[in-house]
Write a structure and sequence with these properties.
By secondary structure, the chain is mainly β. The protein has one domain: Sandwich (Immunoglobulin-like), CATH 2.60.40. It contains no helices and 8 strands. Strands 2, 3, 4, 5 and 8 form a 5-stranded antiparallel beta sheet that branches. Strand 3 and strand 4 form a beta hairpin. The chain is elongated.
């Protein structure tokens, strides 16, 4: 059976603003049709080189409440990687 991990790697390719929504559910049944799912919005502001991670919406059984995101900005090498702890609340991260 598939099990989610607490760490996700995000790769940012600069060059323009971007938006993304991370969608998650149990992955093993149709409970998402009854609302058992979560979404996390992301926004990349290319001018300020800021990644905004929005507030999580929704929940499902077995959901990982606290995550670590490893954020990599393309073209910066491993020295540009940043790790951030995410507990479902909005946060911003400036990248160089």
């Amino acid at each position: 059976m598939w099990r989610p991990t607490g760490n996700l790697e995000l790769r940012i390719c600069p060059g323009g603003d971007a938006d993304f929504i991370l969608y998650e559910d149990e992955g093993v049944n149709y409970a998402y049709e009854r609302g058992a799912r979560s979404t996390i919005p992301f926004h990349w502001d290319d001018r300020t080189r800021t990644l905004s991670i929005g507030e999580r919406k929704g929940t499902y059984p077995g959901m990982i409440a606290n995550r670590e995101f490893t954020v990599h900005l393309a073209g910066t090498g491993a020295s540009g990687d940043k790790r951030v702890q995410y507990a479902g609340r909005k946060l911003s991260l400036m990248l160089k």
